[in-house]
Specification:
This protein has 590 residues and is of the alpha/beta class. It has twelve helices and 26 strands. The chain folds into three domains: 29-332, Alkaline Phosphatase, subunit A (3-Layer(aba) Sandwich), CATH 3.40.720; 383-450, Arylsulfatase, C-terminal domain, CATH 3.30.1120; 459-588, Immunoglobulin-like. It is 20% helix and 22% strand. It has a ten-stranded mixed beta sheet, sandwiched between helices. A hairpin with a 3-residue loop joins strand 6 (170-173) and strand 7 (177-180). Helix 4 (185-200) runs parallel beside helix 6 and helix 5 (224-231) packs across helix 6 (237-262). The longest helix has 26 residues, at 237-262. The two termini are 25 Å apart.
């Protein structure tokens, strides 16, 4: 069951904004297109001063939009997506890592897609999800009626279709499962999204299109013409490919905006362009020399601003938000990813009521966008906490940054004045002990609140809604607290990597279950190489002999009780060594 009310902290400047299915007249409500690129930083477009990269359509959108110039996300992708789609700090939703079972969105959260769907919107998602690959965490379980996605956090991850390489790949739809789509991945996402919009445009219902690209996340592949254009400018290797991937996105953005114009949809469509974390351009050049980062310190994964300050452009001509020189402008107030859900619900006329979550960590920016207010918070003193955990259980004081309108407290001991020192080079903590203490108190209260009830998200096995269910070690929990590893990539299966750990599962109902263990997925067809398969469910162990040349090893067990359990699946090899089953299909038989 989705909760109707969740209590949120009073201290951390949370404006309580509600939402429910109480739409205005359908024809008056705006469409929404939310575009999120992956690993593109604030400096990775021309409008922000990059003189090398070619992004004319992003630059044009920038010129036509309200720009949030102090807009922050999390330093890595899954937490950003969780906060973006729930209006809440990611850690509240069970997401603080990108693997290890900690990138799975708590199904009790109410997403932006669910809220808009319940208000009468058509909802479609095309691209990267990275918030869980099995029931009940999939995008179709979280409010999207139409879905086309890859698996895991990127092409080549274990939950992804085996062998995907950005060109002519297999993607999963909500209706057809995995099938091949010709063309480069970015082109496919935009083409399929545009085709879906074409189907919706004559409907009485407005649409919400979520378009999160996997590019320019690595591996760094782009169509040759895009790579060549940067090699001709003197860039080398992955740096040229990275910029080429962004220019390909830019061309697709241009085609989408032209389509909206041609179809008369542009005026009453809210278009938001943003990215999910800081850039990875500089690390790809080795020393970082030659990569533009808009003067910021840090890149993807960092708790300095370069890791989490990103572009955010909002354009809605019919609403007086961008579209011409008079309404396009910069907003320099401190804003964040979790502001966008309450903002969009506000702009779309979705109000408080039964059946939908009643509060957010974010604040509706609609009054600021409409020039009805000057600040993002009624009291004018806002704080936002950013962190990079990436371990099994969150640890106090692990890579935090406390953001206020003017200052940043990094790692609890470095204080920076962002007006005087936007590059975060001069630590003034020793000169401003009262400010340091104030920001520390904000962090301590934030930490106490968020860790009071951390969710442990489990995939559900044996439910009628999804039977069978496929698990991969991308979501394997580690036995050692603080460990940050799990076999998450297809190369780990190729190399038969060693790992210890368990899947956190929820048994829907008692019965007989079949567990099919694999080293490689069904589409690969490779053998397990194992002579014995061992399954452990909450300490009850069952084993079965296996043929090392067979593609699968099968164990059937009777499960007497429903509920939470730790599932371990191992393959024993002829040399006596054991490895995890990288793929485990679970089917309830009766």
């Amino acid at each position: 069951m989705k909760p109707t009310v969740l209590l949120l902290p009073a201290l951390l400047v949370c404006l309580l904004v509600g939402c429910a299915a109480s739409p205005a007249v359908a024809d008056d409500r705006p469409n929404v297109i939310l575009i999120v690129t992956d690993d593109q930083g604030y400096g990775d477009l021309g409008a922000h001063g990059n003189t090398v990269i070619q992004t004319p359509h992003m630059d044009a959108l920038h010129a036509q939009s309200v720009r949030l110039t102090d807009f922050h996300v999390d330093p890595t992708c899954s937490p950003t997506r969780a906060a973006l789609l729930t209006g809440r700090y990611a850690m509240r939703t069970g997401v603080w890592h990108t693997i290890q079972g900690r990138s799975m969105l708590d199904p009790d959260e109410v997403t932006l897609a669910e809220a808009l769907r319940d208000a009468g919107y058509e909802t479609g998602m095309f691209g990267k999800w990275h918030l869980g690959d099995a029931y009940p965490c999939r995008p179709e379980d979280q409010g999207f009626s139409t879905v086309l996605t890859h698996g895991g956090g990127g092409l080549g991850n274990l939950p992804d279709y085996w062998g995907n390489d950005y060109f002519d790949d297999h993607y999963r739809s909500h209706t057809d499962g995995w099938r091949q789509y010709p063309g480069y991945c970015t082109d496919v996402w935009f083409e399929q999204a545009t085709a879906w919009i074409e189907e919706q445009k004559d409907s009485d219902a407005p649409f919400f299109c979520y378009l999160p690209t996997n590019a320019p996340h690595g591996p760094f592949f782009a169509p040759e013409r895009y790579v060549q254009m940067y090699e001709d400018l003197g860039l080398e290797g992955t740096h040229a490919a990275f910029y080429g991937m962004i220019t390909c996105i830019d061309d697709n953005l241009g085609r989408l905006m032209a389509y909206l114009d041609d179809q008369g949809l542009a005026s009453n469509t809210i278009v938001i362009f943003m990215t999910d974390n800081g850039s990875t351009a500089a690390p790809r050049t080795g020393t970082g020399e030659g990569a533009y980062n808009a003067g910021m310190r840090g890149y993807k994964g960092s708790n300095y601003d370069g890791g989490h300050r990103v572009p955010c452009f909002i354009r809605w001509p019919a609403g007086g938000i961008g579209g011409d020189a008079a309404t396009a402008r910069d907003i320099g107030a401190l804003t964040a990813h979790f502001d966008l859900m309450p903002t969009l619900l506000d702009l779309c006329g979705v109000r408080a009521g039964d059946g939908v979550i009643a509060g957010f960590d974010g604040t509706s920016l609609a009054p600021v966008l409409r020039r009805e207010a000057a600040s993002t918070h009624p009291r004018g003193n806002r704080y936002v906490v950013v962190q990079s955990q990436r371990i099994e259980r969150p640890a106090h004081g692990r890579r935090p940054a406390v953001l206020s309108e003017r200052y940043r407290l990094v790692n609890g001991r470095e204080l920076y004045d962002m007006q005087e020192d936007p590059g975060q080079r001069n630590n003034i903590a020793a000169d401003q002990p009262e400010l340091v203490e104030l920001h520390r108190q904000v962090y301590e209260a934030w930490w106490e609140d968020l860790t009071a009830n951390l969710p442990d998200v489990a995939y559900i096995l044996g439910d009628e809604a999804a039977n069978p269910t496929l698990l991969t070690t991308h979501d394997l929990h580690h036995d050692e607290p603080g460990h940050d590893g799990a076999p998450w990539h297809q190369n780990h299966a190729k190399n038969n990597a060693q790992a210890e750990g368990f899947f956190l599962v929820d048994i829907a109902r008692p019965g007989r279950y079949r567990f099919t263990l694999r080293r490689f997925p069904a589409e690969h067809g490779g053998p397990t190489g194992a002579t014995r398969a061992t399954l452990s469910l909450d300490g009850q162990t069952t084993s079965a002999d296996a043929d090392p040349q067979a593609r699968t090893a099968v164990v059937e067990v009777n499960i007497a009780a429903a509920g939470r359990a730790e599932l371990r699946a191992r393959l024993e090899h002829p040399d006596g060594g054991t490895r995890p089953a990288f793929f485990v299909e679970v089917e309830r038989l009766d």
